[in-house]
Amino acid sequence: MTNILLTLFVIAIFIGLLFGLYKMQTKHVKFSKRVFSALGIGIVFGLILQLAFGNDHAVTTKVVEWTSIVGDGYVAFLQMLVMPLIFISIVGAFTKLDTSKNLGKISFNVLFVLIGTTAIAALIGIASVFIFKLDGATFTKGAQETARIAEIAQRQNMVKDLTIPQQIVDFIPRNIFADLAGTRSTSTIAVVIFSAFTGLAYLGIKRKKEKEAEFFLKIIQSLDAIIMRIVTLVLRLTPYGILALIMKVAAISDLNAILNLGKFVLASYVALITMFIVHLIILIFNKVNPKVYLQKAFPVLSFAFTSRSSAGALPLNIETQRKALGVEDAIANFAASFGLSIGQNGCAGIYPAMLAAIVAPTVGIDVHSIGYIAMIVAVVSVSSFGVAGVGGGATFASLIVLGSLNLPVEIVGLVISVEPLIDMGRTALNVNDSMLAGVVTSRRMGSLDDNILNNLEAVVDSQ
């Protein structure tokens, strides 16, 4: 009875915090300030809950179960939009192109940034392993890790015989309706490919059948307006969703496990932060003020951090590029959509490279060899295609990389207890890389709107 009363009391406080965020909205407090406030309040509230009851106490578990309606529900709403948004965004991007010549330039620049930064990320991940002297032989195995390793072994069986050429073929959509439903791990990139074919078909009939092309354009423009209106409605829930999501992380994280694997967590975040700094340096070379960029990118990065879902961040990602960073519509759509499945710096770059460098010495491989480091970077870069932009994508990427290098996959299961904590930083880096690709490509194409970029009032707002 006491636990029930305490649970109700804590939930009542949570509802009160949600109401406080609503009052901030009615007073027209800036979107970014509401997001930042939600992030801070959620961390404090979650830590108080853990310190008061413990991360596995009945009260904590029950409170998190109920508050997850807000957090997980918000993520679900965003994920609901992902496939329609990818399709409409990419097809819409084609309708905005004057000629198909621009398509090649845009695609090349976006992919160059995504894949190039993934290779750099892999090198930084390996360097972090060397600096912190991480040794795979010292990683311990408990009950949770044992269960995870068994699960990993099953997943490994699904990809161990899958060669890189077969992986590439698997990207091709065989049943677009199944891929629109997200039934495969490669569904996202399959929808991207189908959307690109649809866009190319539009450009083809535009020259020969103007009437039909004009009718199709009106349909796409109408659908785009509807989808973006739904995006606006969902984004209004962002502060509430972030409050619930970060509160859950702070309340149920296993602090002992974090301490036990603290060296690995620290090494991971040093690599992630270093790569983030590389992103900012690239922005400087492209005449973009890092401070202004961070101010405008904060809402989408904070959501990616708390939700651990690159796909869920897609709507806010596109809106941030277009309305806050001055990226051309077509380029923003391409960069955000491609970034979901290609060249994720955190999940498909740093993480699998670190695991490969950690575990290689346990099977007698000299990981300090320049040739072997180059091999890891090459395999990571190629394998970065088709990584799903949702929680678990890093595991999939790691299995492919470790399998391709003939390394044991048990290391993936040994770090399960700190996986959620690291995944938060990885996801934020993934999303930032897709925005970086949009900004850099738009700058190279000469279409970056500096008036929007440098105007601090030009931000994404859900009012």
Q: Briefly, what is this?
A:
The chain is mainly α. It contains 21 helices and no strands. It is found in: Membrane.
The major β-sheet equals: none
Average pLDDT rating? 83
| SSE topology string | HHHHHHHHHHHHHHHHHHHHH
Count of strand segments: 0
The CATH architecture can be named as Orthogonal Bundle
The unreliable regions are none
Measured between the Cα atoms of the first and last residue, the distance is 42 Å
Helix and strand composition category? mainly alpha
Q: Rounded to an integer, what's the Rg over CA atoms?
A: 22 Å
Number of helices: 21
The named CATH superfamily: Sodium:dicarboxylate symporter
Envelope shape:
globular
How many structural domains?
A: 1
Q: Beta-strand level of the residues, as a percent range?
A: under 5%
**At the first level of CATH, what is the class?**
Mainly Alpha
Helix content: over 70%
CATH fold call: Proton glutamate symport protein
Subcellular location: Membrane
Transmembrane segments: 6-23, 35-53, 73-94, 106-132, 187-205, 226-246, 266-285, 370-390, 396-416
Protein name: L-cystine uptake protein TcyP
GO cellular component, one term: plasma membrane
Indicate the topology.
Layout: H1 2-26, H2 31-53, H3 58-95, H4 101-132, H5 143-159, H6 164-170, H7 176-180, H8 187-208, H9 210-235, H10 238-252, H11 255-260, H12 262-285, H13 290-307, H14 314-324, H15 329-338, H16 345-359, H17 370-383, H18 393-404, H19 410-414, H20 419-444, H21 450-453
Helix pairs in contact: 1-2, 1-3, 2-10, 2-13, 3-8, 3-9, 3-10, 3-15, 4-12, 4-15, 4-16, 4-17, 4-20, 5-18, 8-9, 10-13, 12-16, 12-20, 13-14, 13-20, 14-15, 14-20, 15-20, 16-17, 16-18, 16-20, 17-18
